[in-house]
Write a structure and sequence with these properties.
mainly beta, Immunoglobulin-like, 3 domains, 32 strands, six-stranded mixed sheet, about 0% helix
């Protein structure tokens, strides 16, 4: 039985069992007998296939058998019992592998191994004193046996900072121990889903981000889980070279209206060119006069003496990221006029 078949059984309902190393999923009810539909066991631990009877055992005669069907194998008789006693163990090799548990027809597997996986069938004939006919009950419990997962390890390729829109990142997660392991990736503790840029392998052990963008920056880790356990890896940062974005010119002088700065005649004005960029961008300041342009200076800061200007002059700040090879620019106008406040 594959994982989808197990999950189908589990969707019938969930209830946690009380024994160590055991998880009880969807329960199957009948008028007289109650058994779990699926039990997930831990390799090397014991597992009880519990049977709950919904009647008084006094004066009730029970006869039945337990069978096992291993994946791809035949149906094998394990034990036949009458009332509270086993009357036949089908094979000597089953004597230490299974133990009949009176008084309610439960079956104990003392030590789980891979051979214990499969479907366990219970056939019961119940005779009630007040009834003439026998009541026939047939139930099946699916048993899985898994190894708990160890702490997962993650790796990022390449290990260095990557360039947005030009490079890809491959995340890999693996465990040394564990069976039927499924993985989940999280960024900043939020699960990641498949998208045009996020591709996962069949069990999610590998995540490829192609291409990387600024929004992918963050702390990544993976969860490794199976039916019986779950572990989390350490976190690892993803760094990205990006930008420049959100370019803006700012000044503490004069009056700003939109992209127009008004300053008093003779006032010394400083402008700063700011952008979101990694690594920090370089800036070039350009003046625009009569459809002609001239580079004034290079740097994040521009100093302008207003008495040297005409009444209005246009400027341009151009930001450039030497790693991403991206640039952005913004234009503003400087007007020299009396503000009536002395600046």
């Amino acid at each position: 039985m594959n994982n989808s078949d197990v999950h189908r059984r589990e969707r019938e309902g969930e209830r946690e069992g009380g024994r160590e190393g055991e998880r009880r999923d969807g329960e199957v009810n009948s008028e007289f007998v109650h058994v779990p539909a699926v039990l997930h066991g831990v390799k090397g631990k014991s597992l009880l296939l519990s049977v709950e009877t919904h009647f008084q055992n006094k004066d009730v005669e029970i006869q039945g058998s337990w069978y096992q069907t291993r994946p791809g194998g035949p149906k094998t008789l394990l034990v036949t019992f009458h009332n509270h006693s086993a009357i036949m163990v089908a094979s000597m090799r089953h004597r230490n592998r299974f133990s009949f548990q009176p008084p309610n027809a439960s079956l104990l597997i003392p030590r789980l191994d891979k051979a214990a996986e499969g479907d366990y069938h219970l056939d019961l004939d119940i005779h009630f004193p007040q009834r003439q006919e026998l009541v026939r009950v047939e139930r099946t419990i699916h048993v899985t046996v898994d190894v708990p997962v160890s702490t997962p390890v993650i790796q990022k390729t390449p290990s260095s900072t990557v360039i947005e829109d030009k490079e890809n990142v491959t995340w890999t997660c693996w465990v040394e121990n564990g069976t039927r392991v499924q993985y989940q990736w999280l960024r900043n503790n939020m699960p990641l889903d498949a998208s045009d840029r996020h591709q996962f392998s069949h069990n999610n052990s590998t995540l490829v981000i192609s291409p990387v963008r600024k929004k992918d920056i963050g702390q990544y880790h993976c969860l490794a889980r199976n039916h019986i356990s779950q572990r989390q890896s350490h976190t690892q940062d993803l760094s990205v070279f990006y930008g420049p974005y959100n370019l803006a010119v700012k000044s503490d002088h004069g009056l700003r209206t939109g992209e127009v700065f008004t300053v008093n005649p003779g006032e010394l004005v400083f402008f700063n060119c700011q952008a979101d960029s990694n690594p920090p961008n370089s800036c070039m300041w350009i003046s625009k006069t009569n459809n002609a342009t001239e580079v004034i200076t290079v740097g994040l800061r521009l100093e302008v003496t207003s008495y040297k200007l005409a009444q209005a002059e246009e400027f341009l700040c151009r930001a450039f990221n030497n790693v991403t090879q991206k640039q952005d620019e913004t234009q503003f106008t400087l007007v020299v006029a009396s503000l009536g406040t002395g600046g």
